[in-house]
Design goal:
The protein is mostly beta strands. The protein folds into three domains: 141 residues, Immunoglobulin-like, CATH 2.60.40; 182 residues, Immunoglobulin-like (Sandwich), CATH 2.60.40; 194 residues, Cupredoxins -  blue copper proteins (Immunoglobulin-like, Sandwich). Helix content is 10%, strand content 36%. It has seven helices and 34 strands. Strands 12-11-14-19-16-17 form a six-stranded mixed β-sheet, with no helix packed on it. Strands 23-22-26-31-28-29 form a six-stranded mixed β-sheet. A five-stranded mixed β-sheet has the order 13-21-20-15-18, with no helix packed on it. Strand 16 and strand 17 form a beta hairpin. It starts with 9 loop residues before the first helix and ends in a 7-residue tail after the last strand. The structure holds CU-O-CU linkage (C2O).
Length: 583
Amino acid sequence: MDIGPVASLPCLVLAGLAFVVVLALALGVGLGLGLKHHSSRTYVTTNSSFILDPSFQISNATTTRYYEWTVSEASGAPDGYERTMLVVNNQFPGPLIEVNSGDQVVINVFNSLPNGTTIHWHGQWQNGTNYMDGTSGVTQCPIPPGMNYTYRFTIDPNQYGTYWWHAHASTQYTDGIYGPLVIHSPAEPVYGSYDREALVIMSDWYHDMSSGLLTQYLSNAGIDDQNSPIYDNPGAEPPPDSGLINGQMIGSSFDFKPNLRYRLRLINMATLTEFVFSVDNHMLEVVESDGTSVVGAAVHRAPINVAQRYSVILTTNQTLGSYNVRAEMQDICYKLDNPNLDTMVLGTLTYGATAVATPSTQNWNDAYPGDCIDLNATQLVPVIESPPPNSTMTVSVSMSFQQTFASGGQATLGYMNNTSWEADSADPTLMQMYKAGAQTSFSQSQLVVVNDDIQVIDLIMDNYDDSSHPFHLHGHTFWLLGIGDGSFVPGQSEVYLNYNNPPRRDTLTVPGYGWIAIRFIGDNPGLWAFHCHIGWHMAAGLLMQFASLPSRIQQFSIPDYLGQQCSSQSGGTILNRGISIGR
Ligand code: C2O
């Protein structure tokens, strides 16, 4: 079996291993310390500190950074309940990728799981390297068990800020395959205006493997089953069992120094949950949204939906001591309650004093947003103006959930227009277009909008569901022209669009029974997913694709192992919402 480029590169492996050790030490991970091995299985290590290393050289000089990763099962108990998790290098959350703009990164991912997997680099533009985007069924086949895929791409020299990576095969990331990606640049407007920086990773957590929960969610028959509330509520997503800050339900602590400005990089790595983040007694100045530097609005609380990122500046200028850090799970946005869920996830921030485990500080007393939507446009004004060019193409889509009886049983599936997406795990749409070019015709489970030439695309989406949904566009930063209630009415709703330095980001929340209008430049060759980032909803079909510049796609130098891993998928074409490829 050809395992691709790594076998011939032992020094790369060594460099990667050395890097992992250095990274682990830098993060203060006691590899193997403190946590007992459970039976024959490895136990997950949880970092206790997420303060970034201040000695990282932020520079215009670029380099290549090598990472050697193994994705595997392991036991862990992030919230005290032990379960099987899926992890990278036995760490949870997974390893930090920290780079400068323009760096090349080489991440060799070895799949030690019993199922296929892929890793996606959320928010990376990947101009010219769409086949490194890591999207199962779109840009690659799942990496079969026992094989590796080397992700090699250059961070765009004009891209900086806070990103993350995660598995992009069915709902796999829910089980723990995720971690932070930080891009530094002297060109970032906020550069030099803070003293230290720390990661604040928020996620929701389940006691069961996502594959089983997904089967229940999708095959939901609406019949009465005392043991499974999900079965009784068609279309209701499994509610999580707990919430985590930096991989821990309790005890995540930030040990800061007094009178410094800290950049907190908030990242929501959840599957379902919007969080509202705050720190008692400390104002937060919002300086970044999804990689775009913004004019710092000061807030007490910042709502952050699935897959979004904000950087906020916090100044340690209050009375020395410990303060509650709060990541409040917005369970009001769930369709189904979990009565056992504690929605107030707490951490501790301490400076100039001995840390107290449970600070007595009080929550801000202003009202909660409570409506499951984003910070508004006036709080997200980009520092660097970039006026949207006039659009040359308008794409109108709707999203909805519908009951179907398609495959014998009843199911609630997600639809973009009339298409409920299903990953083609043996013939990703990128490979289809690579082979056939503009003549490609896609199967009925793929909604693909093609632009043969560079177009400025307006994407208008109506949400026919009562819940709000966090949508992400791969490979682009879009202008957020407008958000509204009801349906977008062409000829009338345009008055609500803002062309004057609108927010730019890569993930936005579409309100329940509402619409959004975004604009992006279709100049990035490849197949780019646009999907709801709620893991359950993407797996249920809420994904469409943009295919830009087919003639350039045909000129890609796609590594041979991509095609080989597709043909090693058993049984020809496998359409799957779940993930059990390659057993
Ligand atoms: Cu965070 Cu399709 O991605």
